[in-house]
């Protein structure tokens, strides 16, 4: 019985190390923005994410379509993003085009280097979804790809 407790402790310790390692790598990678999304009840949730710039917009990337922040923007695409100490309101627009996904992947890899390689080794990049941040004051006709 004692060996079961020891094995369970080792497994729990490894899980903590992996999760902590992922968090540490993502925070050490470079620029981090805080994205506030809202759930169905309107409660705010802050998430720290990497950001890149492309085609005149800031872009986020959901590693998997089940990420909590990504699921919330499906219900309410309005987000507040704090970047460089300034907070602005945006509409988060997922773009499911493989060419855009690959371009955003390349920009993230260039900007975040080794940290992106570590995080990327733990996920299937084909499942990632880039998210364009469109300022709420910008008309739809002004967006590239609209």
Structural overview:
The structure is a single chain. The protein starts with a helix and ends in an 11-residue tail after the last strand. Helices cover about 40% and strands about 30% of the residues. It has helices at about 1-30, 70-75, 100-120; strands at about 35-40, 45-50, 50-55, 55-60, 80-85, 85-95, 130-135. It has a single domain (about 1-140), classed as Roll (Pnp Oxidase, Chain A). It is an alpha+beta fold and about 150 residues long. It has a seven-stranded antiparallel beta sheet, with helices on both faces. It is built from three helices and seven strands.
Short description:
This protein has helices at residues 2-28, 68-75, 98-120, and strands spanning 33-38, 44-49, 52-54, 57-62, 78-83, 86-94, 129-135. With 146 residues, the protein is an alpha+beta fold.
Describe how the helices and strands are arranged.
Layout: H1 2-28, E1 33-38, E2 44-49, E3 52-54, E4 57-62, H2 68-75, E5 78-83, E6 86-94, H3 98-120, E7 129-135
Antiparallel strand pairs: 1-2, 1-5, 3-4, 4-7, 5-6, 6-7
Helix pairs in contact: 1-3
């Amino acid at each position: 019985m004692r060996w079961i407790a020891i094995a369970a402790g080792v497994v729990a310790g490894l899980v903590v190390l992996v999760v902590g390692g992922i968090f540490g790598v993502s925070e050490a990678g470079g620029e981090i923005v805080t994205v506030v999304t809202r759930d169905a009840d309107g409660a705010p949730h802050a998430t720290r994410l990497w950001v890149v710039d492309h085609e005149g917009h800031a872009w986020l990337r959901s590693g998997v379509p089940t990420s909590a922040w990504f699921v919330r923007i499906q219900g309410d695409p309005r987000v507040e993003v704090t970047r460089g100490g300034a907070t602005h309101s945006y509409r988060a627009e997922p773009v499911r085009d493989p060419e855009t996904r690959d371009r955003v992947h390349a920009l993230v890899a260039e900007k975040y280097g080794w940290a992106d390689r570590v995080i990327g080794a733990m996920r299937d990049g084909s499942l990632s979804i880039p998210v364009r941040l469109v300022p709420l004051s910008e008309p739809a006709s002004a967006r590239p790809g609209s």
